[in-house]
Amino acid sequence: MPFPAPAPNYLSMTAPPPFDPRTFRQALGTFVTGVTIVTTLDTAGHPAGLTANSFNSVSLDPPMVLWSLALDSTNLDAFRRAPYWAVHVLAAGQEQLSVQFATRETDRFADVRTTEGPAGIPLLEDCAARFVCRAAFEYEGGDHAIFLGQVEAFEQTTRTPLVYHQGRYAGVFPAAPAAAPASSITALEERGLVERTRGRLRLSAEGRVIAEGFVALAESDTATLTAHETAALRHLLPLLG
Ligand SMILES: Cc1cc2nc3c(=O)[nH]c(=O)nc-3n(C[C@H](O)[C@H](O)[C@H](O)COP(=O)(O)O)c2cc1C
Q: Which domains, and CATH codes, for the chain?
């Protein structure tokens, strides 16, 4: 089936190579990811690691995962030679840890609690999930090296994962099953929970504004809430008690 004609809000779909790096990055940034920290031990026995969102699952049987590392990374040699590495899926609230492991010329492991994994690799605590991997393959991937690892052990916690989208940290936001009709907004207005101001919603309780301007609504009475807006309301309303 041919690719559908570009919708009016598609950004430069037809740009021929060489791509403009900025718009290429933006297009890639539409793919929402989690955030991981990959760790290992370098040949001198020092802990090494970096923040990476290129992590992905590959195979269930055998269990395999991958991630990619920039060829200009100071960590390249460590990961090329490492028999083991570990991927830590960060949890909501661990943005600072992500920044720390993406910053050069800093002691990335400062104030970070670790335990020892196979071959002495540092394992971080309190993440959403952790995958301890035996290095299996390295592939060439343009200006990155792609590392495939066989998962030898993993752990999962109940912590909600951190999300990364278009260069920003975000949170998990489950989609609502269906759009709610405008009448449900009216019902909320009648209860004094929601106020419509110039096409936006304001939630307040006991005279205090809880949230404002988080959803744009058409002024028309026939407007319906999108699944996203309904999800926002569903999350916010319990806060109103
Ligand atoms: C959210 C996020 C995701 C990143 N993902 C990757 C990645 O997948 N691969 C990579 O090589 N660098 C990635 N980086 C950049 C590295 O964390 C960091 O810039 C790099 O480690 C530079 O230091 P180094 O030369 O010591 O490795 C990412 C940075 C951030 C903030």
A: 21-170 (2.30.110.10), 182-240 (no CATH)
